[in-house]
Amino acid sequence: MTSTGGIVIVGGGLAAARTAEQLRRSEYAGPVTIVSDEDHLPYDRPPLSKEVLRAEVDDVTLKPAEFYEENDITVRLGSGAQSLDTAAKTITLRDGSELGYDELIIATGLVPKRIPSFPDLAGIHVLRNLDEAVALRKEAGSARRAVVVGAGFIGCEVAASLRKLGAEVALVEPQPAPLASVLGEQIGELVARLHRAEGVDVRCGVGVAEVRGTDRVETVVLGDGSELAADIVVVGIGSRPGTDWLEGSGLELDNGVVCDGRGRSSAPHVWAIGDVASWRHTLGHQVRVEHWSNVADQARVLVPAMLGQEPPSAVSVPYFWSDQYDVKIQCLGEPEPGDTVHVVEDDGRKFLAYYERDGVVAGVVGGGMPGKVMKARGKIAAGAPIADVLG
Ligand SMILES: Cc1cc2nc3c(=O)[nH]c(=O)nc-3n(C[C@H](O)[C@H](O)[C@H](O)COP(=O)(O)OP(=O)(O)OC[C@H]3O[C@@H](n4cnc5c(N)ncnc54)[C@H](O)[C@@H]3O)c2cc1C
Questions:
Q1: Which residues form the signal peptide (predicted)?
Q2: Which end of the chain has less neighbouring CB within 10 Å, N or C?
Q3: Which class is domain 114-237?
Q4: Can you list the alpha helix ranges (DSSP code H) found in the chain?
């Protein structure tokens, strides 16, 4: 057994990098080890469906190798964790070696869902990691017709990028509108309008019945019987937490690693952060957030909790963005599909909407309205009456 002790972070993405950085910033001087199953240093995922896919950017590394050397952070690449023994305080890697820890931070992100009934044909892609983005990009440049299955954020961004590369794109979504399960139908319709204006064939309220082809994908058959020719198919139907390796560990898992409001799991000395972690909300329910800004917000809370230091006093307002064509869709606060939506600006492409719940402003969503979205931060943080932003 290799006993490193110190703090071991399992996962090699944004959460791993941010947490290691925050540990050193908090003057933790003991050993820090990042264990990643990927062969790349931690990198940024948002560009994968945008600039990387459009071949505008290649290097998405978050920090260069020197950063880890200078900060004495050991990065073990190509080392997937296979199991966790919380009593012995060890993890076992896929190569059979063991690693001891004083504190363990789980940052294993998400695994993209696939459609099991799809045949195993060339040309069918998912997009979660850099290798998958590069594989998709290789085919996207010459694809004439693409079908994107699922109009969540990644599906919508992939559709926009493929369109920009010149492909005919169909976007298929069983919900009534793109992003409906996150932002509600009303804003989803505005997003559908944006894609239609760019020439995307948006098909909502219908799923995929069958995918046909010989060696490569050729046709996607929808539930209503219509057939779409396809050189490539991108499946963007969401992801599930990367917790398979924790089965049998005794750790409480329920839509991710169940944690308190500071990232402590159900086992002593085990913490979780980022897309894989379900943290207790201040209102008492569990929430798992799959957005970039949340990771740094959580690192600023988890690291002091682990080191016995004071947590930050300011509570951050949740934020995420999505780039589709020239429109940056931004969301501040915690809008829910069931909220009352007030669209206060709409020029046919760009828009601004406030979300009302129980009479207060729960969130704001803008398309191409960056300044106006950010201006609402104070009101959302204060739980201001909706009249304050509508008036
Ligand atoms: C294509 C794409 C576009 C996005 N665009 C946006 C955007 O525009 N705006 C926004 O707010 N958010 C966006 N996000 C979300 C954002 O990137 C994530 O919230 C963020 O990456 C979460 O970081 P994480 O470290 O928790 O997970 P990840 O970045 O997924 O990192 C998890 C890491 O753990 C590794 N791992 C998994 N299992 C093991 C194991 N058993 N052992 C060792 N290592 C393991 C994985 O390989 C991976 O390297 C996007 C995500 C994707 C995929």
A1: none
A2: C
A3: alpha beta
A4: 14-25, 65-70, 130-140, 153-164, 180-183, 185-197, 292-307, 370-375, 377-382, 387-390
Centre of ligand 1 to C-alpha 17, Å, is: 11
Ligand 1 neighbour 241 (Cβ under 6 A): no
Q: Measure 110 CA to ligand 1 centroid, in angstroms.
A: 6
Report the CATH fold assignment for 326-390. Enolase-like; domain 1 (3.30.390)
CATH code of domain 2-111+240-307: 3.50.50.60
Are 142 and 232 in contact by the 8 Å Cβ rule? The answer is no
Alpha-carbon span 84 to 280, nearest angstrom: 23
* Ligand 1 geometric centre to CA of 379 (Å): 30
Cα of 298 from ligand 1 centre, angstroms: 14
pLDDT tens digits, one per residue of 29-48: 999 999 999 999 999 999 99
Atom index in ligand 1 nearest the CA of residue 16 equals 25
Q: pTM surpassing 0.90? A: yes
Supply angle C-alpha 216, 222, 224, rounded to 5.
155
Residue 372 beta carbon below 6 angstroms from any ligand 1 atom = no
